[in-house]
Structures are given as structure tokens and as C-alpha cells.
């Protein structure tokens, strides 16, 4: 299990912090934040199965058809490393992956959700940000022209027109992923709906949301915070779905404040 997910660890100190990347990236997305966060604690990173340097031989299409399989992976990794009172910072879809895992184990002590959403599709009065046709077209482009999809999506989700190097960094991150497995992860992500599980969360949670994010509207972030019993919402003065790349210091500061306010 550990080798299959290309686990890496830096720093020392308890309680530990696990950093989970979102869809279309891998653990290197945390490169600007992990060194600073590891100055005070043990930081654990890994690649979701089918992403980055994970061992694709372990990929099981049935297990990863929904986010439940990724949550099971997190629980198994925490067990294997014998981590306790863990803080989990999950970006995007990993916000829900970490929440699902927290319902399966008592090893998780707090959650940090960065640009997370319980449902990406609009549903009546619920504003998720996408219509079913949007997702259908999105998945179709991934299947038809994966590199073209990466080049088209990165500028929109990064939303940093004055810093093209950041967009290129994201294009590179998307482009080097496995096309088929990334498309499957996208389908599991954008068709998911975990709104009914939010009230079951038993641990403190920080919802860190950019003030403008084409993937997750503010309404979805507010819904998330309103329906998790011990959640606090912080709207960060940044733009885009990848603040760990565009404004790492802002995200680190928000994480450190939350961890200081929710000790063991």
C-alpha cells in the first residue's frame, strides 16, 4: 500500500499533517507549501491511485468508481503508518475524500478543505457551478484530446493572467497525468454528491475558499461550511482554484492559524 502510493514524508513532530492533492495533479502540487509546514510537524504526502507516481498496477476500476475507494486508501495509509490525531488538508475533491475517511476512522482529528465542494452540479436551488452538459463536454474533450483539454482548462482554473508561468506549471501537471485514469477520476469527482454526509462530520473543519473560483462558487463553499457542524469558513483574498500555487503563503498562514486554534 505505501509503495503503491509513492508516499513521502518530511519534517518531524506531532500531530502529523497529511496533504492530499486534487484531481489532475499529484503530490508535487504542494511543493511551495510543504517545506514551510514541515518546520513544525511531520508532513505526509502521497499520490492518489492513478495519479502521479502511484503504481497503476494497483488500480481497480470498481474500487475507484466513486470517491469511497480513495477514502478507503487514506484510512489504510493512516493505519499502515500508525498516524494518530492527524490533520488532513485536502485540495478540491480531496476535501470530500478526507471527510469520508474521517467517518471511517478515529485517527483524523481535524480537516482542512481547500477549494472543496460537496457537489459540483447545480441541483434546484443548490449552486454547484456546473450543468450536466458542462461535465459531459468536459469528459468528452478529455477523451478526445487530453493535451488540448489540459491547455484549455489550465488558464481558466488558475485564473492568473498576469503570471503565465503559473498557468504553464499547471498545464505541465495536467499533461503528465495518465489520460484514461485522470478522466475516470474526473468522472468520479464531478458526478459525486456528498451533501448528505456533511452533518455526520465529527471533527473541526476549516473551509478555505478563494474569493473567485470557476470550479467552486462561493455558494458551494458556504453550503459546505453551513452543513458541517464544527466548520469555519475563510474566504481568502486570492483568485483561482489553485491557491497553493498562486498564493502559498496565504494558504500556509490560514492552515497554521487553524491548527493553532484546534490543538490536540
UniProtKB/TrEMBL annotation:
Keywords: Hydrolase. It comes from the Bacteria. Signal peptide: none annotated. Gene3D superfamilies: alpha/beta hydrolase. GO terms for molecular function: hydrolase activity. Residues 15-247 form the AB hydrolase-1 domain. Belongs to the AB hydrolase superfamily. This is Alpha/beta hydrolase. It comes from Caulobacter segnis.
Amino acid at each position: 500500500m505505501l509503495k503503491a502510493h509513492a508516499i513521502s514524508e518530511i519534517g518531524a513532530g506531532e500531530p502529523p499533517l497529511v496533504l492530499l492533492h486534487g484531481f489532475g495533479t499529484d503530490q508535487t502540487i504542494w511543493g511551495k507549501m510543504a517545506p514551510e509546514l514541515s518546520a513544525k510537524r511531520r508532513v505526509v504526502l502521497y499520490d492518489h491511485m492513478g495519479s502521479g507516481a502511484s503504481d497503476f498496477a494497483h488500480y481497480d476500476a470498481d474500487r475507484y468508481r466513486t470517491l469511497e475507494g480513495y477514502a478507503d486508501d487514506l484510512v489504510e495509509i493512516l493505519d499502515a503508518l500508525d498516524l494518530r490525531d492527524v490533520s488532513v488538508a485536502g485540495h478540491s475533491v480531496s476535501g470530500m475524500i478526507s471527510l469520508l475517511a474521517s467517518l471511517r476512522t478515529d485517527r483524523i482529528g481535524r480537516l482542512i478543505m481547500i477549494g472543496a465542494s460537496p457537489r459540483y452540479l447545480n441541483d434546484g436551488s443548490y449552486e454547484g457551478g456546473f450543468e450536466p452538459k458542462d461535465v459531459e463536454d468536459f469528459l468528452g474533450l478529455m477523451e478526445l484530446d487530453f493535451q488540448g483539454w489540459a491547455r484549455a482548462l489550465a488558464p481558466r482554473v488558475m485564473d492568473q493572467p498576469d503570471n503565465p508561468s503559473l498557468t504553464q506549471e499547471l498545464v505541465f501537471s495536467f499533461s503528465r497525468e495518465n489520460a484514461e485514469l485522470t478522466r475516470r477520476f474526473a468522472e468520479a469527482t464531478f458526478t459525486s454528491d456528498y451533501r448528505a454526509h456533511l452533518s455526520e462530520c465529527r471533527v473541526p473543519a476549516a473551509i478555505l475558499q478563494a474569493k473567485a473560483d470557476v470550479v467552486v462558487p462561493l455558494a458551494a463553499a458556504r453550503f459546505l461550511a453551513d452543513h458541517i457542524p464544527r466548520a469555519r469558513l475563510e474566504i481568502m483574498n486570492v483568485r483561482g482554484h489553485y491557491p497553493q500555487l498562486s498564493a502559498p503563503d496565504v494558504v500556509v498562514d490560514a492552515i497554521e492559524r487553524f491548527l493553532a486554534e484546534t490543538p490536540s
